[in-house]
Amino acid sequence: MTHRVGVLGLWHETNTYASHQASLADFADFELLSGAAVLEANQGTGSVIGGFADATGYDLVPVFSAGAWPCGPADAETMSTLLEREHAALRAAGPLDAVLVNLHGAMVADGHADAEVAVLDVVRDAAGPVPVAAVLDLHANPSPDLVAGTDVLISYDTYPHVDMRERGAEAAGLLGEILRGRQLRTAVGKLPLLVCPLAQATDAEPMRALQERATRRARAAGLARVCIPAGFAYSDVTRAGVSVLAIHDAGQEAAARDVIAETLDDITANAEAFMVARDDAATAVARALASPARPIVLADIADNIGGGSPGDGTTLLAELLRQGARDAVVTIADPQVARLAADLGPGAEIEAHVGGKTDDRHGAPVRVRGRVRTVTDGRYRTSGTWMTGREFSMGTTAVLAVDGVSLVVTEKPTPPFHAEQLSSVGIDARRAKVIVAKGAIAWRAAYGDIAAEIIEVATPGVCPIDIGTLPREHTPMAFSPTAFPR
Microcystin LR degradation protein MlrC N-terminal domain location, by residue (predicted)? Predict the structure, then answer.
C-alpha cells in the first residue's frame, strides 16, 4: 500500500513593529494556492515544498500553501480566511496517512500570538492523529506547543537561506522513516536571547562553531538531528529567542534533553559574540566613497525588507546625495513615484518626494529631480540560491537617474535576495561603486560574490541593530529542555 502524504504550508515572518499588516492580498501576491497548483508552482524550485516534491516512495497529495513577504501581523479576518481555506483543502484531499508542513516559526496574527500552532490544530482536526513533519525558518521562534504538535520539526541550517529545498527533502525522508515504523520525536529548549540577524550568519562566528559542536554532540548521543533556530527578535512575543531542536528516537528523551542543555550552555557562554555595533549613515557613506574598492555594498540594516520593514527608508539615499556619490544604486519602495514615472515614460524629467511614507521610523521623504531611465513590470525569475527558479514581482518598477544615483523605485517592497532584481531593470551591479541593499545577511545570496567591500550601517527602522531600542510588552521566556513522548 502506498501512503498518501499531504503537502501544505502557511509561511510568514512577522515583524510586530511593522505598520503594514499582512492582508489576504499580500498572500495572493506571493503564494495562495490549493490542490494541484501547490506542487505545480513549487516542483523543481528551491523552496521547502520543492524539497517535499523530491520525495519518493509515497503518494504526495498537494493540499494548500500560503505565504507572504515579511511585514506586520496578519489581520484577524485574513488569518481566519487562511485557516478556513486550509481546513477545506484538507477535507477535500481525503484521508491522509501523514502530512508535510512548510512553516516559518515566527508568524503572528491578530488573535494568534503563536499562529503556527493554529495551523497545526487545523491539521489535527481535519486529518486526525497522523504523523506530521514540518520545516521552520532559521529565524523561527518555536514554542513547546508548536513542537508538541509535530513528530519531526527541523529548521534551515543556513543564513542566507540557501538550503530550503534540502530541508524539505530531509523532512520528507524522516517522515518516510516514521511511516516505515521508526518512532521519531522532537525536543526543544530555548534561551531568551534576542539576537540581531547580523550575528546569525551561519558561515561566520558564533553560529558556525555553535552548529558544528551541536552536530557533534547529537551524533555522539545517537540522535537523528539537531538544529539551532537563532530566532526572530523583531517579534514581540514570549517565545522569541534562540532555540535548540533535537530529533530523536523513542526512548532517547534523556539524551535529547542532555544535548539541548549542553548546546544552550554553549550558546550562553558565547552570548557576547552575538553583540554587534556598526557606523551611522554619514560615517558609513564617507567610508564607502573614500575607499578605492568597487562595488561596495552598504547594508541598510534597519530597513531590512526580509525582516518586515517597508523598504522605503531614505537615510542612505539622502546621505549619498548629500555627499555627492557617483555610480550608486539605491532601491526604494514607493508605489506613487513608480506609477508617476511609468505615466511620464522613459526619457522624461521627473521631480518627486521619494520614500519615507509608510511611517516615521525610516527617515523623511527625499526630494529628487532627475530623468526616467527605464520602466518595467518588475517581474523576474531567479537563478540564484534563494528559492531557485521561482518568479517574483516588484510591481511597476522605474529606474531614475538622480545626480550620481541610479534610483530603482518599486511598487512593492521586495527583498534583495536575487541579482535579477537589478539586472532585470538593466543595471549591472558589478559596474556600480555603491549598492545599497535593504537587508542584513540574506542579500549576500545576490551580491556576496561580487562585493569588494561590505559596510553594514546602523540605520533607523523596525529592524534595528540594537534590539534594546525596541519597546517590548512581552518578556521572552526560557524553555527548559523538553521532550514530548507520544
Answer: 4-289
